[in-house]
Amino acid sequence: MSLIKSISGIRGTIGGQTGDTLNPLDIVKFTSAYATFIRKSTTNGSNKIIVGRDARISGEMVKNVVCGTLMGMGYDVINIGLASTPTTELAVTMAGADGGIIITASHNPRHWNALKLLNSKGEFLTAADGNEVLSIAEEEAFEYADVDHMGKYTEESFDEKHIDAVMNLKLVDAEAIKKAGFNVVVDSINSVGGLILPALLDRLGVKHTFLNGEVNGDFQHNPEPLEKNLTGIMSKLKEGGYDLGIVVDPDVDRLAFICEDGTMYGEEYTLVSVADYILSKMQEDPAHPALNTVSNLSSTRALRDVTEKYGGTYTAAAVGEVNVTTKMKEVGAVIGGEGNGGVIYPDSHYGRDALVGIALFLSLLAEKNQKVSGLRKTFPEYFIAKNRIDLTPDTDVDAILLKVKDMYSADKEVAVNDIDGVKLDFPDKWVHLRKSNTEPIIRVYSEAHSMEEAEEIGKKIMDVVYSMV
After folding, report:
1. Cα angle at 255 between 382 and 230, to 5 degrees?
2. What is the C-alpha to C-alpha distance for residues 259 and 275, in angstroms, rounded to an integer?
3. Alpha helices, DSSP H only, in 57-155?
4. How many angstroms separate the Cα of 196 from the Cα of each of 112, 179, 203, 215?
5. What is the mean pLDDT of residues 165-180?
6. φ, ψ for residue 206 (rounded to 5)?
7. Which of 12, 210, 243, 393 has its CA 20 to 30 A from that of 176?
8. Residue 384 above 90 pLDDT?
9. Could you say which of 8, 58, 106, 363 is catalytic?
10. What pLDDT is recorded for position 222?
11. What is the largest distance, in Å, between two alpha-carbon atoms of the chain?
């Protein structure tokens, strides 16, 4: 498996040859490049870097290499240990650090790991900054500290500080949640959610049962929180006696819910539900800001519908968390995120945060005083189909996408967006075509009011592409 280097970090499988996998030599090289970039770009000057990791089996090894390298570059390291991605992001600002490194491969299987890079705001690097790190790594343009200027190493947990921050959010109604007496089942997929989520739920007064709660990195199923991977928790809910199922990925930045009857709530509707709650509450304040929202191009149209219901404006961003947060800042969005269950709430921080999502969703559920399945029916009904077009390595994918764009640009009933691939927005459905950065394929997402319609329009556009190839 090839080592994948991108603007957001470096990821790959553990073991194998240098340059082809995530191994100690490449970890040193990339960490050194990141430290060099931070040294010349930061304005904080604290000389501190935060390091946090999920519970992957390889995490201890990677953490040791990363921390040692940062110390060799002259940085003081604060190792926050087993911690979620949003906890690590918040720790950067809470500690006044110059940056942070998150050791996690997110929803990828157990044999993967990665380094995700943060700036002094606890946010992912921009595309320009990420490219500069890649250039420094390629040139090996870094210099290590002498013996008198090596960095120091300390350990500190930020879990309670993260939970305190969630509890202190104005729209988290902890009292109402406690009064509701919720009983939930949580699948924390053998990672750091098994550490921080019990503490959060205890603070909220929520009774909980954990599946895959042992924090050992030995994932008991594919860790991506999709329906096909969640048969265990769905079966548990079907036994009865629970109000809600909660599912997170290994680094706790994605969040999916399951209804009390064991059916999927739909990960696309995590953000939609939280946004509806936020917008409804903010609308009650006469001095509220513009009720704007943002999600990426591949996310459900339901967020747009909910936003417009409250008189707000919805804006689509290119796929990728940093693209979403950049657009949120640009339009002054009060809530945003991604359809994969990622909630970004600026009143907390500009990062996907399952803890924030859980607290806000439970606040909504307590206010509505209805079953989760009933709540789901109150939102616009859409279905997303996901397909792919396999191509040969020599296929000019950009030329194909340009032809698709040109083909539909003259159609007045179709809005064409080309900020990230090509999205064709029809009056009652849409299709989004994106080029993969790692393999010769085009990802095809389509949405309509029924799965049959979504598949139909997706296949129609796929046939158009095939005719070009």
Report:
1. 80
2. 19
3. 59-72, 85-94, 127-139
4. 22, 22, 11, 11
5. 98
6. -105, 125
7. 210
8. yes
9. 106
10. 95
11. 68
Annotation says 106 is catalytic: yes
Q: What is the pLDDT of residue 352?
A: 97
Q: How many residues does the chain have?
A: 469
45-59, 145-159, 217-231, 434-448: least confident range = 434-448
Q: Using pLDDT thresholds of 50, 70 and 90, give the confidence band for residue 317.
A: very high
The DSSP annotation for 282-347 comes to HHTSTT-----EEEETTS-THHHHHHHHTT--EEEE-SSHHHHHHHHHHHT-SEEEETTTEEE-TT
The secondary element (H helix, E strand) that includes residue 235 is: helix 231-238
Q: Which two tokens stand for residue 409?
A: 């640009």
Q: Are 274 and 361 in contact (CB under 8 A)?
A: yes
What's the confidence (pLDDT) of residue 387? 94
The pairing of beta strand 422-425 with beta strand 430-435: antiparallel
Strand 422-425: give its sheet, edge to edge: 383-390, 441-448, 430-435, 422-425, 415-417
Find out whether 70 and 31 touch, Cβ atoms under 8 Å: yes
